[in-house]
Amino acid sequence: MAPKAVAPAIVDGDPQTYENENVHAIYDKIASHFSSTRYKPWPIISVFMSSIPTGWIGLDAGTGNGKYLPLPLDRPSDILTIGLDRSINLLRLARHAGESRATREVVWGDVLGHCWRPGVFDYAISIATIHHLATHERRIEAVKRLLESVDPQHGRILIYVWAIEQDELSKRQIPTGDDDSDRRGKDVVVPWVLSQPAEPARRGGSEAPTEQRVFNRYYHMFAKGELSGLVHGAAADLGMHVGEPSALASKQLHPIRGVEIVQDGWERSNYYVELRCWQTSE
Amino acid sequence: MVRLITHNLLACHVKGCTSNNFPLQFRDVQIELREAEFNPDFLRGFMPKLEWKALVDASRQLGDTSLPPEVPEMLDDDFLKNLHHVLLEIHVEEGVMTCPNCRHEYPILNGIPNMLLAEHEIG
């Protein structure tokens, strides 16, 4: 397959409207085809899910077709992950994600919403989602929602986003520019080519029974360090420290909330961070 | 999908609606029962997260009266099996969840609750 061209994008107007048109509406149209290409969990995410203790409940913010909801495969009923997504057509697939076809818990909502009791989840994952938010501020808000959704004392979080730095196996060709995208990331649109049966009226004879439509999805490609920068920004807004709990004196008049960045890495064209929340006792 | 385990986590998030916004009240529900794997260790681990009264009230709204009004001291198998059924085997397929505070209505269609808000309702 020829490399797919990735074109620069300019986000203008209201970011919510922009996302509605350039992200949400597209996923609803390509849901079924998209889902058929997204079935294999990435290894670091599987390892994270396998490390979750029995009895914990979690949020998958931007669950897509729900491919992480059945994890861990060797003890699936030990934990429960609830999937949240903006695309109703992806959720309909997520509802029956996994080989067992068991019914999954899914909720139609926005990752910037907060439709949960605060801190009620033990863990949260957000995989390939935050890069669809169209401004830096909205991406910080999304990380804040994750920090607010998990238990202040032990909540664990894993976030994956698309990186400017692509691996050599990637099909993408990324436009290069002389701007400061190395530091601030890059706004692009990525084409999704959807083959579908042509409408009968338009079929001319026996050939070309399918027609192709191209949908350009908006992405913010992250620069190195940008994802952990969002964590710092979100933590600052919430009055949380970033770092290890031991770095602070334990004798505090008021409990202090913090978040430790346990992992900050790059894997196969994506940046990821793993976070662990902590709180000192009074 | 709205099982009672999810219902016990959901709260209204309309702008300014920050107190008495839990639990959402069921109305006009259609339910289906589906067996799920019984895992007592999961239930024991999850119990500290539960808002017990909200769960008991919601289960009664759905016609199940197997749970006691207070959490029992002994978490024996009979109790855990009832809890398992209430949390994980009753599926609300259709209906409405209403906020007890601002009366906002969250519809459930084909088993999926719609927690999206209109732009002017977002806090």
From TrEMBL, chain A:
<dbReference type="GO" id="GO:0005737">
    <property type="term" value="C:cytoplasm"/>
</dbReference>
<feature type="domain" description="Methyltransferase type 11">
    <location>
        <begin position="59"/>
        <end position="148"/>
    </location>
</feature>
<dbReference type="GO" id="GO:0002098">
    <property type="term" value="P:tRNA wobble uridine modification"/>
</dbReference>
<keyword id="KW-0808">Transferase</keyword>
<dbReference type="InterPro" id="IPR051422">
    <property type="entry name" value="AlkB_tRNA_MeTrf/Diox"/>
</dbReference>
<keyword id="KW-0489">Methyltransferase</keyword>
<dbReference type="Pfam" id="PF08241">
    <property type="entry name" value="Methyltransf_11"/>
</dbReference>
<protein>
    <submittedName>
        <fullName>Component of the Mediator complex, a coactivator involved in the regulated transcription of nearly all RNA polymerase II-dependent genes</fullName>
    </submittedName>
</protein>
<dbReference type="GO" id="GO:0005634">
    <property type="term" value="C:nucleus"/>
</dbReference>
<dbReference type="GO" id="GO:0000049">
    <property type="term" value="F:tRNA binding"/>
</dbReference>
<dbReference type="GO" id="GO:0106335">
    <property type="term" value="F:tRNA (5-carboxymethyluridine(34)-5-O)-methyltransferase activity"/>
</dbReference>
<dbReference type="GO" id="GO:0008757">
    <property type="term" value="F:S-adenosylmethionine-dependent methyltransferase activity"/>
</dbReference>
<dbReference type="InterPro" id="IPR029063">
    <property type="entry name" value="SAM-dependent_MTases_sf"/>
</dbReference>
<dbReference type="GO" id="GO:0030488">
    <property type="term" value="P:tRNA methylation"/>
</dbReference>
<dbReference type="InterPro" id="IPR013216">
    <property type="entry name" value="Methyltransf_11"/>
</dbReference>
From TrEMBL, chain B:
<protein>
    <submittedName>
        <fullName>Trm112p-domain-containing protein</fullName>
    </submittedName>
</protein>
<comment type="subunit">
    <text>Interacts with TRM9.</text>
</comment>
<dbReference type="InterPro" id="IPR005651">
    <property type="entry name" value="Trm112-like"/>
</dbReference>
<dbReference type="GO" id="GO:0070476">
    <property type="term" value="P:rRNA (guanine-N7)-methylation"/>
</dbReference>
<dbReference type="GO" id="GO:0046982">
    <property type="term" value="F:protein heterodimerization activity"/>
</dbReference>
<comment type="similarity">
    <text>Belongs to the TRM112 family.</text>
</comment>
<dbReference type="InterPro" id="IPR039127">
    <property type="entry name" value="Trm112"/>
</dbReference>
<dbReference type="GO" id="GO:0030488">
    <property type="term" value="P:tRNA methylation"/>
</dbReference>
<dbReference type="Pfam" id="PF03966">
    <property type="entry name" value="Trm112p"/>
</dbReference>
